[in-house]
Amino acid sequence: MTAAHSLNNWVLPSIAVIIPVYNEGRGIKQVLDVVCKVPMVAEIVVVDDGSTDGSVGMVVRAQECDARIRLITHAKNRGKGQAIYSGLQSTQAESIVLLDADLRGLDVQHLENLIDPLISDDLDMTIGIFRGGKFYSDFSHWVTPWLSGQRCLWRAHLERICWKAAEGYGLETAITVACLRNHWRCRKVFWRGVSHPPSEIHRNFFGGLINRVKMYSQIGRAFLIASLDH
Length: 230
Known about the structure:
This protein is of the alpha/beta class. Helix content is 40%, strand content 21%.
């Protein structure tokens, strides 16, 4: 989709929001409720990555209220990187917003603050950074802001990251390496009051701990692969 929209005297490129979902039946509705209130968004692509809860049904019900929502499903869990790749291949939008499905405290202003600078200030990417939400989310973004899953960037940039490095939990690392290597103009956008629950809440404590170890091992792998990619 290439139709442009006008906001505050800026002519905006077409914008697609891609949301990967894995067992987020309780959270995805809250996120979609907010995204659907942003008129500059042309497409809302939800990629269900093999959920076994009610996530798909929640998205289907949301589609009845907003025709911009499209649902892509993976038969089995393939990881966040593949989910984003599937969403990207399904749209021709010129700029892409990446959002997690379990955000708490998100509102329209947060999204507009993420999108507007990309166009008005001629940036390559913006990154949403949590502040003043939950202490664990704030701490995580203070220590590793480059792992934030909330971003807005040009499609052309996202297409050229190392997708092999992006497999599993490596997406944000692959994007960050591409950003550093290509000297993208990037800005942090502070999202006051926004957070998302740690993996230990989604699973039992030990299951969450194992998942966290797996996540950081894949992040290390992604950094190595992306750094060596030419």
